[in-house]
Amino acid sequence: MENVLRPLIVIGGSVVLTLVVGWLVDLLLRRADTRHPETPLWGLLRRCRLPLQFVLITALLSGTYRQAEIGSLRSHHDGIGRILSLVLIGASAWLAVKVATAVVESTYSRYAAATRDPARVRRVRTQVTLIQRVVIAVVGVVAVAAMLLTFPAMRTVGTSMLASAGVLGIVAGVAAQSTLGNLFAGFQIAFGDMVRIGDTVVVDGEWGTVEEITLTFLAVRTWDERRITMPVSYFTSKPFENWSRGGVQMTGTVFFHLDHAAPVPEMREKLHEVLRDCPAWDGRDWSLAVTDTTPSTMHVRAVVTAKDADDIWTVRCVVRERLIAWLYEHHPYALPRIATAPAAEATAAVSPPLTKRPESEPVAADEVRPRTGRG
Fold it and tell me: What is the tens place of the pLDDT at every residue in 98-127?
C-alpha cells in the first residue's frame, strides 16, 4: 500500500500545490489590477500564470521525485533528473520572457497614453519591439547554453571552445559579416529614429507603410496590400523617402493640361467648393495657379493638403475627377483638342483625254487669254 500512496502523495501534492500557488498569484494580480487601473502591468502579468505553474511543478518534481520510490524508475533516476532539469530551464526562460514582455508593454502603454505626438509613439513602439526581440534572443541563447551544460560531454567541449574563443570569434565575425551588419543596422534604425513602424516610405519606387521592423529585415506594406521585405542595412546605406518624417501631414498637387481659354478664376472657385465637400481635406491650405504654357495648352496646378498620405491620395483623386467633369459639362472648350481632317483622295496618274470643242460652240470672252510667253 505504501508503494502506491507514496508516488500519489509526491506527484499529487506537487500538482495541488502548483495549482493553489497559481490561483493565489492570479487572485493577487487581479486585485492589484482592480485597485490600479491606470497601470496595465498587473493585468499583463496574469499572462505569466501558465509558465509560472510549469516552473513550480518542475521544481517540485525535481526535488521530490526520488522520494516517490517508484520501483520501475529507480534505474532511470539520472535520466529523469536531467529531463526535469531541461524542462525547468526551458520553463524558466519562458517565464522570464513573459515577465520582460509584460514590463515592456506596460511601459509602452503608459507612455502612449500620456503622449499626444504620434511620431514619438511610433518611435517608442519601434524601440520596444526591437528590445523585446533582443531579450527573447538573449534569454533563448542562455537557456540553450544552460541546457547543453547539463550534459557532462558538453562541459568538456565547452572548456575546449573557451580556450579557442578568440579564433572562433574572428571566424564567426567574418562568416556572419552580413548578419552582424543587419543587426547593428537594426539598432541604428531603432535608436537613431531613421524610420519607425507606421511611417510612409518610398523605396525603389514603391510607396508603402512600414509594418514590421526586426533585427535583420524590415517589411513594407504597399497600397495594394503587397509586402516588400528588405534588409535593414538598406535603410542605412541607401537614400529613401520618409513622408512621415517631421509629421504625417502631406501636401499634394494635381496638374491639368487645358486650353488657353480655360476659365481659371472660375476653376479656382470650383476647386474651393470641391474641397469643402471632401472629408479627406484637412482645411489647412489650397491654391490654383497657371504654372506653365505651351503653344497648344497651359499647365494649371492645384495644391491641396491632408492629414496623412492616404487622405492626400483621396483628395487628389476627388479634385481631378470633379474638376474634369465640371469642365466637360460647363466649359468644354477649355479641354485640349486635337484638330484633324480627312485625308485627300489620291489624284489619277494619267490625265483624262482632252475633249474637242465643237466648231459650232461659241467661245466665251473670259476664255480668251493673252499669250504671256509662260505657256
Answer: 888 888 888 778 777 777 767 677 777 777
The dihedrals phi and psi of 216, each to the nearest 5 degrees, come to -125, -25
Same domain, 241 and 258: no
Cell of 70: 517508484
Give the Cβ contact number of residue 257 at 10 Å. 14
Q: pLDDT tens for residues 280-328?
A: 998 888 999 999 998 888 999 999 999 888 888 899 999 999 999 999 9
SS3 state at 301: strand
Distance CA 196, CA 178 (A): 22
Range of the domain at 316: 250-334
Beta bridge partners of 218: 213, 230
**CATH at 325:** 3.30.70.100
Radius of gyration, alpha carbons of the chain: 40
Domain membership of residue 127 (yes or no) is no
Hey, which residues does 241 pair with through a beta bridge? 202
Question: Does residue 345 lie within any of the structural domains?
Answer: no
How large is the average pLDDT for residues 243-261? 83
How many structural domains is the chain composed of? 3
Domain containing residue 174: CATH number: 2.30.30.60
Q: Which of 223, 246, 269 is where one domain is finished?
A: 246
The answer to whether 270 and 300 have CB atoms below 8 angstroms apart is no
pTM listed for this prediction? 0.46
C-alpha cell of residue 276: 469643402
